[in-house]
Amino acid sequence: MRSHYFISATLFIAVTSIFYIRRNEGYTVANSNETMVSIANPAENYATYCAGCHGEKMNAFVDRDWKHGNGLKDLMKSIKAGWPDEGMPAFAETFNDAEVQELAEYILTGIKNRKEYDFNDRPTSDIFKSESMTVKLEAVATGIDVPWGMAFLPDGGMLVTERGGKLYKVFNKQKQEIKGVPDVVAEGQGGLLDIALHPDFGKNQLIYFSYSKPHPDNKRLATTAVMRAKLGRGGLSEQKIIFEALPYAPTRHHYGSRLVFDGKGHLFISVGERGNEKENPQTTDNNQLGKTHRINDDGSIPADNPIKDKSGKVTSLYTYGNRNPQGLALNPFTGELWENEHGPRGGDEINIMQAGKNYGWPVTSYGINYNGTTITDKTTAPGITDPQHYWIPSIGPSGMAFVTGDKYKPWKGAVLSGSLRFQYLNLSWLDGTKIVKEEKLLKNIGRVRDVRMGPDGYIYVAVEAPAAAIYKLIPVE
């Protein structure tokens, strides 16, 4: 189910959009024998005839190029005459000239009123005000250029991964490097990635971390892997690779990769499609890229996993059709597994992950290619699980956490996602599982790579350089 902020194109399959942009959203021309009655109010006309393809909030105009001009006369011409060869119908018989002009002016005003993100509005203090509460940032760790993942230790300390390939223990605002980390491909988006503690860490001292692993025989190739190790005073020991996503690839992006334990001892792993959108995300036989996985704590595969290979053997696959999932969290109120993932140019998503489901990439998407060309004209399709929410333009989501406890009562139950692109913390309020409102927190703090709820009830965010630090959000009365 999509967020109610946006209207699915399928709801308006007979009444389409007002002009053609480089991404053809799948226009349908109305039957010429049908009589279409316009509404005098341009806002209602837009909602009826245009919103299905261009979004209730005109979101589909963002990050798009105007192919046939962006002036008032250009838009009026497109509305009246259409572009039949490109799938854009004419509305000359639907609207009179006055209504065409009113609709065009309404669209141009709406686009103009969409505020561009202001990167120049830099923080001037460590105090940040939101609509419902104020927080103060306290730095608990500094000097880590790209802090990728965080895990909280029983002694009050914290483990932090640095993408360059180092693992730190942070305690009382001091950090100590932990030895024993494997070699990582610290290129592009690769490196040392997420980290998680075993549910019985207090007894077995086991930790898990994901990383970009070089191929043993061909350093040009790499993949997303997960290692299990024992944490001791001398560093890591008993290292064992318990998961490798096949096939290896030469690209240096879209590794994923978040780690989450459920309450049954299963480890969930998100893996990106490594940039191969044509094959990896939709191929479930002998291909582990563009998927989320579920394994046991020792790397074995649960017998009740939902997807089997051609021979009938159960695989680690839990979902497929994912692009680059960089946020993963269990909803503590429902037990559901939530995920956020990067779209291309537009179409970042929040999903509720269900066993065996296909999440569409690249069969369906709200995004376009970075050069402005079309990836797909479908935003929904049979057999595809639609996103819970999507962002246009892309915010570059990374990290995910649900707000619990009473320290942040106005935010309790909401879901947090870091924004790499726009450098803020995104707060999404929920009504059940529907995202009904959003707010930008900590604007321009820096690229927010991860967000977690600590066992002390505080929110922690990992921010990349130049403001590189792990921050604790302290409510201010």
From TrEMBL:
Indicate yes or no for the key word Metal-binding.
yes
Q: Is Zinc-finger one of the keywords?
A: no
Q: Bias regions of kind Polar residues — which residues?
A: 281-290
User: Which ranges carry the Cytochrome c domain?
Assistant: 37-111
**Start and end residues of each stretch annotated as Disordered:** 274-310
- Entry keyword set: Heme, Iron, Metal-binding
Q: Which domain of life is it from?
A: Bacteria
Q: Which PROSITE patterns match?
A: CYTC
Protein's name in the database: PQQ-dependent sugar dehydrogenase
The organism is: Flavobacterium arundinis
